[in-house]
Design a protein that fits this description.
This protein is α/β, with parallel strands linked by helices and 727 residues long. The chain is built from 27 helices and 21 strands.
Length: 727
C-alpha cells in the first residue's frame, strides 16, 4: 500500500495523479473511491447539470453535424449526445477533425468529460475529453485496454481533474489491484462476523470493479464501517482517558452565591434550564473533569445555565472563565452578567451582597492600566468570574484556582486554544461547551462523541415568534422596495433593524468575514457593508440613523457601535456576520439579509435569531437574486418555512459535503473519510460506537489490536483527530 505510484503506473501518470488529485501511493489510489457508478442505458440526468461545473457524463451519440466557422477558417463539429432521459448536451470540436466525426457515430456510448457552458440556452461541453465504450456489435474497440476498465455492467466514475479524467484513474486502479497485495484486514474477526462484514481485500476490489449491485453494497457497507469505527474508537478512547484523569470536585453549597442569584432572578427558569442545570451541578460535584456540550436554540437561555454553573464553582472556592469568540460578544456577556448579578458582583464595594464576587473582562483592547488591574484581580482570586476573548490565553493571565472553563460557540476555537486555557489550572478544570447551532443526532454522536450532551429546546416565556420571507429581488424588484418601506415602518413604530451583507468591502485576502472570490459563471461580487451602507443612507433609508459594524473595525469602535445600537441611538445596523452570535438587542425586530443565498442554512438561522428577542414579533427578509427552482432558492424557501433549528441542521447536513463535517475541507488535505453519510448511516454509526465502547473497555490502548490501532491512526490522522476535538 505504501508503494509509490510512479513504480506502478509510470512517472508521467504518477506526476499527474500527485499534482492534480494529491494521490502518491498505491494506498492513496485504492482509497480514492468512485463518486458514482453509471450503467449503459441508464441516464445521468443531463438536465440537472449546473453551468460552470466540471462533469463526466455517460451518454450516447445521437447525431453529428459539421458547419463552417464564422469568425475564422475551418469547420466546427457539433455532436449531440443524450442520456436516455430526454436531456441532451452538445459537444463542440473546433478545426478540421474529420476523424472525430467517423469515430463519434450515432449509437456509440461514451464517457465525456469537460466544463459545462451555456450557448443560447443549450448546454455544451467545448472540446471535451472522452472515451468510447466497447460495443460488441461494431467489433472494433471492445478488446482495447481502455475498454477493459469498463468491462463490467457498472462503470465507476471517479472524482477527477481535467488533466486526469476518470478513465485514466480507472486504468491505474486496475494496475494497482492486479499488482499490489491487499492490506491485512485490521478488523477483529469477532466484530466482522457479528456485524456480517465482508473482508477488506474483497471490499476494496468490489468498490472499484463491482461484479453486481449487491456486492457493491456489501463493499461500501464494510468501508463505511471502517470509517465510522475509526472515528468512534478515537472519541471513545478520548472519553475514557478524560474520565480517568483527576479534577477537583466543586459541589453546590447551600446558602451561597448560587442560591442568592436564584432568589433575585426576575423570571422563572424553564423546566429545561432546571434539568440541564441539575446535570451540570452533578458533573461539577464529581472528582473527574466534566466535558459537557450544551446546545440550544438561539434565545433558549444557555447563558443563564452557564452563569449558574460558574456561581456553583465560585461557591466551592474556585474561579470560572468564559471564552467568547469576539470582543463584541465578550463585552455583551460582561454587561449582561453584571446586570443579572447586581450586588452579587460587587465584592469590596459599598452595597455589595454578603457572598459577592467580582466579574472581570479581559480583552486585547484593554488599556495598559485597566489590563494590569484586571489581571491582578484574576491572579488574586478576587475575580470569581472572568470573561474574555483569546486574550485570556496569553502569557501573563494567571488564575488563582481555575475550576471551570465555559467555551461559547465551540466551533470558533481550536483545540490548542482550549488546551491553553485548561493549562492555566492546577488540575484539569471542568469544561462546558455551548453552541446555538443545533446539531443533528448523528453529528453529535460522531463529531462530539467525547462529550456528554445536554439540549435546551424550550424557549423562555415572552419570546416572540419570527416570521421569515424570501424576497426575490431579480424577479420582483418591487418586493425589495417594499422591504425597505417595511423597515421604515418598524423604525417609525419605535423599533430597530439589522441589514446583513456577506462581505465587508475593500477586500483584503483572508479577512474572516470575506466571501469567496467571484465564481467563473460570471456572478457579480457579493454585496459589501461599506458599499451598501452609503447607498441605503442616500436612498431608501434616507434620514434614518445608520451604523456600520464588521470584523475589521478596531475593537473600541465595534464596542461603541454596539453600545449605540443597544442604547437605541441607531435605527439600523448594517453589518456582516459579526452579529451572528450572541448579540442581544430586544428592541431590534427586523432583519434584512442581502444576498441571502451566499450564506449557509445554519448561518441564516443564527442570524435570524437576532430579532424577536423582546415582546414584539420579529421579521426576517431573505433577499436573493436566485431564481425559482434552483437549489439556492429551495434552501432559502426551507429556511423561511420553519424556525426549527434541528430540521434546518439536517437540511444543512444534506446540502454540505460529508467531508466538511469530518474536517476534510477545513484541513485542506485529502481525507480517507470518504463514504460515511452522517444522515443515511445513523444506524451503522450507532453500532460502530457500541462496538468501540466494548473494545475500549477491554483494551483501552488497543495494545492487543496493533493492526486496528494503525488503521485508526491512518483513517483519523492527527489533523482529523484535532478537527474532531474542535467540533
Amino acid at each position: 500500500m505504501d508503494t509509490p505510484l510512479k513504480k506502478l503506473v509510470g512517472e508521467k501518470t504518477a506526476k499527474a495523479l500527485a499534482g492534480h488529485l494529491d494521490l502518491h501511493t498505491a494506498g492513496d489510489l485504492i482509497y480514492h473511491f468512485p463518486r458514482r457508478y453509471d450503467e449503459r442505458g441508464e441516464h445521468t440526468d443531463i438536465k440537472a447539470l449546473d453551468v460552470g461545473e466540471q462533469v463526466t457524463v455517460l451518454a450516447q451519440v445521437q447525431r453529428t453535424a459539421v458547419r463552417p466557422m464564422r469568425q475564422r477558417r475551418g469547420n466546427l463539429l457539433e455532436v449531440t449526445v443524450g442520456d436516455g432521459s430526454g436531456g441532451t448536451l452538445t459537444l463542440t470540436f473546433f478545426g478540421n477533425q474529420a476523424w472525430r466525426e467517423r469515430e463519434l457515430r450515432p449509437g456509440r456510448w461514451g464517457l465525456f468529460a469537460g466544463k459545462v457552458t451555456d450557448f443560447r440556452g443549450k448546454r455544451q461541453l467545448n472540446g471535451p475529453e472522452y472515451v468510447l465504450l466497447g460495443d460488441q456489435t461494431d467489433g472494433e474497440a471492445a478488446a482495447t485496454e481502455q475498454i477493459e476498465e469498463f468491462a463490467g455492467a457498472l462503470i465507476p466514475v471517479y472524482p477527477a481533474a481535467a488533466a486526469v479524467p476518470t478513465w485514466v484513474i480507472a486504468r491505474c486502479v486496475r494496475v494497482v489491484l492486479d499488482t499490489v497485495a491487499p492490506p491485512e484486514d485490521p478488523l477483529p474477526a469477532g466484530v466482522r462476523a457479528s456485524r456480517n462484514l465482508v473482508g477488506l481485500g474483497g471490499a476494496l476490489r468490489e468498490i472499484h470493479r463491482p461484479s453486481s449491485r449487491e456486492e457493491l453494497y456489501r463493499a461500501r457497507r464494510r468501508l463505511k464501517w471502517d470509517e465510522a469505527f475509526a472515528v468512534q474508537l478515537t472519541l471513545v478512547r478520548r472519553k475514557h482517558q478524560a474520565a480517568a484523569s483527576p479534577a477537583r470536585a466543586r459541589p453546590a453549597r447551600p446558602g451561597g452565591l448560587l442560591d442568592a442569584f436564584d432568589a433575585r432572578l426576575p423570571y422563572e427558569l424553564t423546566g429545561g434550564q432546571r434539568d440541564v442545570g441539575a446535570e451540570i451541578a452533578a458533573d461539577l460535584a464529581r472528582e473527574h473533569p466534566m466535558h459537557r456540550l450544551l446546545q440550544g436554540e438561539v434565545g433558549s437561555g444557555k447563558t443563564v445555565v452557564a452563569l449558574r454553573a460558574m456561581l456553583q464553582v465560585v461557591d466551592a472556592g474556585g474561579q470560572a472563565a468564559l471564552l467568547a469568540p469576539t470582543e463584541v460578544l465578550a463585552a455583551q456577556h460582561y454587561r449582561g452578567m453584571l446586570d443579572l448579578l447586581g450586588p452579587l458582583a460587587q465584592a469590596g464595594e459599598l452595597g455589595a451582597a454578603e457572598h459577592a464576587t467580582r466579574v472581570e473582562l479581559v480583552t486585547g483592547s484593554l488599556g495598559a492600566a485597566a489590563r494590569r488591574r484586571a489581571l491582578a484581580e484574576v491572579a488574586s482570586g478576587a475575580a470569581g468570574i472572568v470573561l474574555g476573548t483569546h486574550a485570556l490565553l496569553y502569557e501573563g493571565v494567571d488564575f488563582a484556582d481555575l475550576g471551570l472553563v465555559v467555551v461559547d460557540e465551540q466551533h470558533r476555537f481550536g483545540v490548542e486554544q482550549r488546551d491553553a486555557l485548561r493549562a492555566k489550572a492546577e488540575k484539569p478544570p471542568h469544561v462546558l461547551v455551548m453552541t446555538a447551532t443545533p446539531i443533528p443526532r448523528t453529528v453529535a454522536m460522531t463529531v462530539y462523541g467525547d462529550l456528554e450532551i445536554s439540549t435546551l429546546s424550550q424557549l423562555p416565556r415572552g419570546r416572540s415568534p419570527i416570521a421569515s420571507h424570501v424576497v426575490p429581488a431579480a424577479e420582483k424588484p418591487a418586493f425589495l422596495d417594499r422591504a425597505w418601506r417595511r423597515l421604515r415602518e418598524e423604525v417609525a413604530n419605535g423599533h430597530q433593524a439589522y441589514v446583513v451583507c456577506p462581505r465587508i468591502g475593500d477586500s483584503t485576502a483572508g479577512a474572516e468575514e470575506e466571501a469567496p472570490a467571484v465564481d467563473d459563471t460570471g456572478r457579480r461580487p457579493p454585496l459589501a457593508v461599506t458599499e451598501v451602507a452609503p447607498l441605503l443612507a442616500e436612498g431608501p433609508l434616507h434620514g434614518l440613523r445608520i451604523g456600520v459594524l464588521h470584523g475589521r473595525l478596531p475593537a473600541d469602535e465595534k464596542d461603541a457601535v454596539m453600545r449605540s445600537f443597544a442604547g437605541g441611538e441607531l435605527d439600523v445596523l448594517v453589518a456582516t456576520t459579526v452579529v451572528e452570535v450572541g448579540v442581544d438587542v430586544p428592541n431590534a425586530t427586523m432583519m434584512v439579509v442581502l444576498d441571502a443565498d451566499r450564506f449557509g442554512v445554519s448561518q441564516l438561522h443564527q442570524l435570524r435569531g437576532r430579532v424577536g428577542r423582546g415582546s414584539a414579533p420579529g421579521l426576517c427578509l431573505l433577499v436573493t437574486e436566485a431564481t425559482e427552482g434552483t437549489s439556492a432558492r429551495e434552501r432559502l424557501d426551507a429556511v423561511a418555512s420553519t424556525t426549527d433549528g434541528f430540521k434546518l441542521a439536517e437540511l444543512d447536513l444534506e446540502q454540505r459535503r460529508e467531508g466538511d463535517v469530518l474536517g476534510a475541507a477545513q484541513s485542506g488535505r485529502r481525507s480517507h473519510l470518504r463514504l460515511l453519510s452522517l444522515l443515511r448511516d445513523a444506524d451503522l454509526i450507532r453500532d460502530a460506537r457500541a462496538e468501540a465502547i466494548t473494545l475500549v473497555e477491554e483494551d483501552p490502548e488497543l495494545t492487543r489490536q496493533p493492526a486496528l490501532a494503525a488503521s485508526v491512526a491512518a483513517l483519523v490522522d492527527a489533523d482529523r483527530a484535532e478537527y474532531l476535538e474542535k467540533g
